[in-house]
Design a protein that fits this description.
The complex is a heterodimer of chains A (115) and B (117). Chain A is mainly beta. Chain A contains no helices and 11 strands. In chain B, the strands form 2 sheets. In chain B, strands 2, 4, 5, 6, 9, 10 and 11 form a 7-stranded mixed beta sheet that branches. A 4-stranded antiparallel beta sheet of chain B has the order 1-3-8-7, with no helix packed on it. The termini of chain B are far apart. Classes of the chains: A mainly beta (115), B mainly beta (117).
């Protein structure tokens, strides 16, 4: 079975600093990987996803993530944090290629941006 | 702008009441899902549906039930609510591609936050 581990339930950075949110997965077959963001009192919004092809994936709001098979990682980065980036971030993995698409989520990382 | 809608957004009720959380999507997606999100933020799949008249239990056991009579509608029902049901419930949907595969992206509603006193 697949699983996702997000290192650090809380991450705090200064405005303008690098954002790095860590995600490691376990999977017996090549996974599909996702990062979602959740703002207060809202649902989840897709930031970016990796399915096949280029391992460096660019998403919305200046975020990007790199799929590293050898490290089973899919860390999320942004060069310069903005106050509006404060939110909860979820990494997710899926193996399903047919039928219902069941995502397994990590426990989430709360990102705080300090002025 | 969201194409998947959940109502109510917030609900506070007493123990023993029957409640239905509504979820509708206008994207024509075949697959729909309910996730439960605990106060500690983790999400767990409790129900999903491949299409009309299809419902399956998810990875987390839940006393709730679901139905899928129409493609666009996937309501969740609790016959007798208890304080342990207090949580946020997130509905999601995903499209099917022609070959039956999809890229995995789920589209989420804004959630229904349930508090049972």
């Amino acid at each position: 079975a697949q699983s996702v581990t997000q290192l650090g339930s809380h991450v705090s950075v200064s405005e303008g600093a690098l954002v790095l949110l860590r995600c490691n997965y376990s999977s017996s077959v090549p996974p599909y990987l996702f990062w979602y963001v959740q703002y207060p009192n809202q649902g989840l919004q897709l930031l970016l996803k990796y399915t096949t092809g280029a391992t460096l994936v660019k998403g919305i709001n200046g975020f990007e993530a790199e799929f590293k098979k050898s490290e089973t990682s899919f860390h999320l980065t942004k060069p310069s944090a903005h106050m509006s980036d404060a939110a909860e971030y979820f990494c997710a993995v899926s193996l399903a290629r047919q039928g219902a698409q069941k995502l397994v989520f990590g426990q989430g990382t709360r990102l705080t941006i300090n002025p | 702008e969201a194409d998947i809608y959940q109502t109510p957004r917030y609900l506070v009720i007493g123990t023993g009441k029957k409640i239905t959380l509504e979820c509708s999507q206008t994207m024509g997606h075949d697959k729909m899902y309910w996730y439960q999100q605990d106060p500690g933020m983790e999400l767990h799949l409790i129900h999903y549906s491949y299409g009309v008249n299809s419902t399956e239990k998810g990875d987390l056991s839940s006393e709730s039930t679901v139905s899928r009579i129409r493609t666009e509608h996937f309501p969740l029902t609790l016959e007798s609510a208890r304080p342990s049901h207090t949580s946020q419930y997130l509905c999601a949907s995903s499209p099917s591609l022609k070959r039956g595969y999809n890229t995995g992206e789920l589209f989420f509603g804004e959630g229904s936050r349930l508090t049972v006193l």
